[in-house]
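Data deposition worksheet. Section B asks for the primary sequence of the deposited chain exactly as it was used as input, without tags or linkers unless they were present during the calculation. Section C holds the resulting structure in token form. Section D is free text for depositor observations; keep each observation to a single sentence. Incomplete worksheets are returned to the depositor.
Section A, Depositor: J.P.
Section B:
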Amino acid sequence: MSATGIPEARSSDTTNHGRGEDEPLLGRAGDASQQEDQGLQFNFVIGTAVIAQVGIWILAATIWASIFVQPLILFSAHPLLNSTGILLTTQAILLLQPTHTPKQKKQGANIHGILNLTSILTLIAALVVIEYNKISHRGAHFESPHAILGLITYILFFLQAIIGIAQYWTPGVFGSTDKAKSIYKYHRMSGYVILIMSFVTIAAATQTDYNKNVGHIQLWAVVVASIITLIGVLPRIKKQKLGL
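Section C:
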């Protein structure tokens, strides 16, 4: 085991280029694995990642288009920042999924952390914007399904980030590197749950008064783009990484 807590690769792992124990949920073993001679940038399009990219960019573009065709106001930053945060989170997931050697995992985890940290900062900014907007207009807080789901999703994002940082960069807080590593699979599972929660929250946003009167983002468009994204993301899940 390396100093970072990532298991050293066995010879059979490297010769098989991530096949066998890194079998994805769907497809053949090795279909969603980063090859030895590939850079991290290829992870964004390996396997079904292309499908995920189509879905998440359609979703982001749909939101951005609905905002930029209207006069920009303070509130405009809220959906722009939120959608950017979820876009970055999706990229962070796609980047890390195919890694399987200690070197790949270390490099991938570092970039994964940077992308997610940037995502968290955009989400915090989005939360600040909407709260300031509510306070300045004396609006109701956390009453609509979108607002309630949004608050839950924000909290989950922040907890996920804190635990992820502690697991990888300060494993001693869990008692040891091995103990921190033992809950990696729960961090991965919760990450997928939070991504789905994000899509549900966006779907709920289409039913708000603002969207019905101004944004006009269609619920079906959000649902279709979200499903396309998940079709690309979920099959790349490595069974072994989830302890399956």
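Section D:
DSSP finds nine helices and no strands in the chain.
Confidence is low (pLDDT under 50) at residues 1-21.
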